[in-house]
Amino acid sequence: MATLFIQLSLFLFTSIQLQLTTSQSISTNIELPGSLTTSFSVIDYGAIGDGINYDTQYIQSAIDVCSASGGGHVIFPAGKTYLTATIYLKSGVILDIEKGARILGGTKLRDYPVVSKRWYVILAENVTDVGISGGGVIDGQGLKFVNKFDVKKNVMVSWNSSGACYGDECRPRLVGFLSCRNVRVWNVNLTQPAYWCLHIVRCDNTSIDNVSIYGDFDTPNNDGIDIEDSNNTVITRCIIDTGDDAICPKTYTAPLYNLTAKDCWIRTKSSAIKLGSASWFDFKGLVFDNITIVDSHRGLALQIRDGGNVSDITFSNINISTRYYDSSWWGRAEPIYVTNCPRDQSTNAGFISNLLFTNITADSENGVFLSGCKGGLLSNLKFINVNLMYRRRTNYTGGMVDYRPGCQGLVNHSTAGIIMEHIEGFEAENVNMRWHSNHLRGWNNPLDFNPSTVNNISLLRFHSGLYQ
Ligand SMILES: *[C@@H]1O[C@H](CO)[C@@H](O)[C@H](O)[C@H]1NC(C)=O
Ligand SMILES: *[C@@H]1O[C@H](CO)[C@@H](O)[C@H](O)[C@H]1NC(C)=O
Ligand SMILES: *[C@@H]1O[C@H](CO)[C@@H](O)[C@H](O)[C@H]1NC(C)=O
Ligand SMILES: *[C@@H]1O[C@H](CO)[C@@H](O)[C@H](O)[C@H]1NC(C)=O
Ligand SMILES: *[C@@H]1O[C@H](CO)[C@@H](O)[C@H](O)[C@H]1NC(C)=O
Ligand SMILES: *[C@@H]1O[C@H](CO)[C@@H](O)[C@H](O)[C@H]1NC(C)=O
Ligand SMILES: *[C@@H]1O[C@H](CO)[C@@H](O)[C@H](O)[C@H]1NC(C)=O
Ligand SMILES: *[C@@H]1O[C@H](CO)[C@@H](O)[C@H](O)[C@H]1NC(C)=O
Ligand SMILES: *[C@@H]1O[C@H](CO)[C@@H](O)[C@H](O)[C@H]1NC(C)=O
Ligand SMILES: *[C@@H]1O[C@H](CO)[C@@H](O)[C@H](O)[C@H]1NC(C)=O
Ligand SMILES: *[C@@H]1O[C@H](CO)[C@@H](O)[C@H](O)[C@H]1NC(C)=O
Ligand SMILES: *[C@@H]1O[C@H](CO)[C@@H](O)[C@H](O)[C@H]1NC(C)=O
């Protein structure tokens, strides 16, 4: 019923617009297929949908006409697979990929624009009021970009022929919104991205709801959602199952304010939530709530390396299970990981302050790591209602602290409940550590810190005991 109502009201709205246009330029008399409704089916514009022939130009025509006539929905009818090179989303257009329809990204270099920063299957740039929905699938065919399968870490295709991209970062992303306003992505299934999946850059007012992301567990840089230099982003009800960081805010050219992510389920071979490591500008006002993190290499991570300052970040109602995977991936099964040592000697440290972790439970093979650095204290950290269960369950080597990228790299260090370095103000209230006595190879103390770098610790109802 709701859908019908919206379609009807859009129809009325468009009819009025068309009347106005007609009375202003009666002689033009352009006949556009579908122009009497706000829906434009790609089939009407020539798309075949056989998954073999490219439908790029037909999809693009439908989008261009839709946008030029004031916006609306571009429909990808169910039951078909639409193979395409890069398509450009225009202002006012919602891509409606029906349940049972699939957009298939091309796998050839010539399918993508010349400039590597525009390598996306779907790209929206400098536009407003755009979205993707409909219940269908966008498929990047990521496994076709694997040169050599390896359960530790796949070796991937590199398109670094012009030298314009670096190392393991030379493949297309799936969906990108660059410098956009009012973006909505909802009820859609993003699968097999070759590289990052959903990329939000310099955007304002973005909503991502009920999006499922299925990457590949062994593919490096197979990130879920990367949010860069953007304000006012809300992510809700997402499922992310992928190899690399799942929700990853970064700052390259401007600060990032107001990001909320809640009601999500995540599994990853890297960090489930990660701020950084690109962090040249500030992060402020981020909330992560009601999230389940399963069998990940790291749970909640701040990996600040480039001098940006981070403040007012809340993590609440989060269940985490972490385990070791191969050390070629960043992460050592830490449920919570905070570090800000500068990437290299030419960078200043960023300051991290006002972090709240509340209602958190973790079942982990490693402890919490909270590490400021000489020129950059961590200040005012609060842990309230935190249950940490510690046990080993894999045969991977423990007993190491992971400062990567840069800094001191991997350092031998016995495992502790919470390791703290360079901190001013740490408050724990109702923090409960439980230890599985049979699975504690390589562990030593519940709290590990040196009073010369850690000041103002307060423990209220702090409990450490063996698991019954
Ligand atoms: C988007 O805007 C930026 C900055 O103004 C400009 O450099 C870029 O060429 C624009 N891109 C498109 C596709 O219009
Ligand atoms: C990228 O390609 C350029 C030129 O082809 C080459 O000089 C450079 O070493 C390559 N870089 C990486 C990281 O692969
Ligand atoms: C944010 O975008 C939505 C559409 O996605 C729009 O309805 C809403 O008015 C926008 N809010 C602001 C403050 O621009
Ligand atoms: C979430 O999206 C899927 C399609 O990806 C759809 O089938 C399902 O109904 C949506 N759920 C809700 C609650 O809207
Ligand atoms: C998403 O698409 C993938 C690949 O087609 C499929 O395996 C998966 O079941 C779909 N998930 C949902 C929630 O629709
Ligand atoms: C986000 O807000 C900051 C602070 O107001 C501003 O400097 C920045 O340009 C905004 N970014 C976007 C993409 O609107
Ligand atoms: C962040 O959200 C607050 C509260 O809604 C709002 O007042 C502020 O303008 C937002 N910041 C930016 C940069 O949009
Ligand atoms: C938490 O998120 C799950 C989906 O992952 C949802 O089913 C549940 O209702 C949410 N809980 C609350 C209290 O909002
Ligand atoms: C976390 O686990 C508790 C206890 O099993 C459960 O009540 C709660 O709903 C879970 N929350 C999330 C976000 O998974
Ligand atoms: C971070 O804060 C410090 C101290 O206030 C300041 O000197 C520095 O410029 C800030 N960094 C950025 C990127 O704004
Ligand atoms: C923490 O959990 C308690 C009990 O489940 C709940 O009453 C409280 O609102 C939660 N706190 C937050 C910040 O969500
Ligand atoms: C760990 O090693 C032991 C002894 O070699 C073996 O019995 C066990 O199955 C291994 N466990 C895992 C999770 O691989």
Can you describe what's shown?
One of its GO terms (molecular function) is polygalacturonase activity. It is a single chain. Strand 30 (400-402) and strand 31 form a beta hairpin. The protein has helices spanning 2-24, 56-68; strands spanning 39-41, 50-54, 72-76, 81-84, 87-89, 93-97, 102-105, 120-125, 128-133, 137-139, 146-148, 155-156, 173-178, 181-191, 198-201, 204-214, 225-228, 231-236, 239-242, 247-250, 256-268, 271-277, 283-296, 298-304, 310-322, 334-339, 352-364, 368-371, 378-390, 400-402, 410-412, 418-421, 423-435, 447-448, 454-466. The chain is mostly beta strands. It is built from 2 helices and 35 strands. It has a domain at 245-468.
